[in-house]
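User: Show me a protein chain along with its predicted structure.
Assistant: Here is one chain, sequence first, then structure tokens.
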Amino acid sequence: MKWIVLSPFITSEDPKWLFDYIPRDKHSIKAVPATYFHDRSRSHSTGSDWLDYFWHGIKGFFQTFGISENFGVITAFPQLALIIALLKKLTGRKKLVLIAWMFNLGQPYEGLKGKIARFCYSSVDVFIVHSKAEIEIYSKWLNLPASKFIFVHLSAVLQHKDEPWQENMVEPYIVALGSANRDYATLISAITELNYKTIIVAGKHLIEQLDTPGCVTFKSNLSINECHYLASHARINIIPILNIDSPSGQVTVIESMMLGVPLIATECAGTTDYIEHGSDGLLVKPGDVEAMKNAIEQLWNDKELRIKMSKNGEQSAQDKFTFEAAAKTLLVLMDSFDKTKSKH
């Protein structure tokens, strides 16, 4: 079966990623390269962003014409899935398979935008979500059967892992990384009482809104490698989440486990499917400063617990969060739509 892949993170015709684990003798796969920069730290998609996604979707959709019916499109971003779904609907191409991978919208929206979303996404064949809570959230929002949504752990890979987790013993510190849906107010309140050195790496739009004590330092515009270096030498990585019904933080959880960094996270839709409390991380109740403070103090002062969580986190990452693990589900899906296979 032939497939076109669209993702803002793929800039060549060979998509690599999960597709390195898909047998090419069974499926022909070609990406339409993204020619724009996708800013992961931005708070929302601008008009210019949407124009980039629109033209990317158009280019991908045009490549599906003149080919046999045994053809499909895989998107790895909700906005691109919406554009392909709209074009599929407007052209009446019901037989064109559309898999919306990485369908992580965050907070569903209503009004005119909600109506447009429901109109377009109804032509998606299957949605891949990265938390179990999203199945109910999105199926109700889009008025679609829950069977159209499949949970698969988000996957990641570390480009560089020069050394295992090794906390800075001379000047130990806590690190908190990420901008999306972060509850840094609760974290800062807990840290203020403990007075532990903390480095928060986030977009400037978040940093400008926060008042901080002297023990907290802010950084922004760091490279991925710089973020990984900070994390791999931290005593603890903390992922505080604001809206607990909107799945967030999975990438940071996964990368923290891959690095073997002991972690604490808010108990919410984006973390409960990834962290086993007490084994490979600690979960705290949302917005609870006292619970956050107690968890930080416990992990900060218990070296044996940090070592245990480091080892268990690395094992969890190898078992559940690799590209190879996610590709197994993707291959089953791709095979299920392959009409040539069903004829044999």
